[in-house]
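Help wanted!
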Amino acid sequence: MKISRNLKLLFYCLIFYVIIFLLNRYNIINDYILHIINLSLVYVILTVSLNLINGFTGQFSIGHMGFAAVGAYISGIFTTLIWKINPSNPINYLLFFVALIIGSIAAGIIGFLLGLPTLRLRGDYLAIVTLGFGEIIRTIINNIDYVGGPRGLLGIPKFSNFTIIFIITVISVLVIRNIVFSTQGRAFKSIREDQIASELVGVNTTIYKVYAFTIGAFFAGLAGGLLCHLLQIAHPTQYGFMGTIFVLVMVYAGGMGSITGSIIAAFGLTFMSEGLRLLLKWIDDLTPNFPVGIEWRMVIYAALLIVIMLYRTEGLMGKREFKILVPEEEEK
Amino acid sequence: MQTILSLQNITHYFGGLRAVYNFNIELPEGALWGLIGPNGAGKTTIFNLITGVYKPTEGKILFEGNDITGLKSHLIIEKGIARTFQNLRIFNELSVLDNIRVARHFRTNYKLNDSILRTKKFFEEEKRIKEEAYELLKIFGLQARMNDLAKHLPYGELRKLEIARALATKPRLLLLDEPAAGMNPREVGSLMELIHSIRDMFKVTIFLVEHQMRVVMGICERIKVMDFGETIAEGTPDEIRSDKKVIEAYLGSEAGRC
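Answered by r_m:
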């Protein structure tokens, strides 16, 4: 009997999950590393969803963390309130999912609203508008006292754990993959390749650009929700410009228009930035007379990125995908 | 014969520049007409006006009796007009097959939720689209390169692919903007045959803009000549060949060589 590729993919995901779970259970990998894995998974959602806008649809958006902030704060406020009422309510987890969905939908609506007026813009101009948008969101949050303002939203219950983040990440990636390999996905890609030609083979480019923004924002909101319930805090600085740049770097390093690339880059770069911290600390301990200083971490990180981009100008994967991520019906 | 496309008193300005002035045409169904003129005569502008890339300053465009003036491009395409471009506009980073399938997008009967959930409808439609695309590619002899990225095709095949992509929208009127541009004489010969067979096979009306005299004179039933945005002559290839105004404006004194 031939096993379908999707089943195989889910099987691999299950194996990955079980291995990490068991390793953590028997303390072979500690909670710190598990935390980095969780972060990586959240970044996978952020990167893949930004890739849908930037890589597949070719719209240069750099306000992605703004969407994540909407999702994070809205779901965060929601669960904090629930938590205050009754911390041990058995349906709290259910309400957490409701909160996540509400946050994501809110982010999606914001994406939709941002998409509408900015449709006429292209390239750099769109980038400026989305950049401005991200800053507006951050500034608004900074000035609302109810959500803690510059202190950040504190006391968010820790609902996100490895299991939940893993399942949601797998679902998100599969949904975006299914969109990419469909007639809608082809419409997105055609807009990236040549908007005029796309319009002149009958694609409603206006609608599809709004779609891309809305879907991308929805998943960014979902990632934001997961992130704040993992860190138990939502802080305006997390969702600023530098946060977006971090995700954008992952998209480029992995390859614009490659889901596989985004996943690899999200894991690779998250681990790299944390791994460098450990490496530098180790070197520090080794040479007590010449302390290197952990702050050199970001310098090395940047240098490594430059090397990647010099040798793989299209990113690690370019536009290619691992076979396992390509739906079978694409190849028949 | 019925008129499929009619342009009535079309005038178009780019700022202060008059690109098209008082252009009229009544294109009968099933015809194969050509539009010629020197560089900057406004030929491509006419195509852009028909397909909604520009909105005419004055005048009316009727397609099968319906007013399509100022409609959005994708709606005009949905009504049954397709076009190719003077300088190719292929989706380079998509496969040859996907180039065709994009053109089937608005004829695809499944929605975003069908794609996400991979419903039965999705698989049925995808199968149908793929088969249709394959048949189309076969006609153009591109089926072997179906899974290659379009950018890897040689120039002549890209031209064919663009025509195939236009036909994939199932048009009743096909606008070809300089289909023979950049082709060598042998390729031009086969292109002329292809255009003829397209008309018979797909039952489309063809209106083409072309620079190479050999193509226009060889296949068009009727030719319209433009210069500086105005129509200066109209007639059969033989009439055009001997028209004084055309020789002056376009062919020059050595027209006899053509």
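OP: Thanks! One thing I noticed: The mean pLDDT of chain A is 90.
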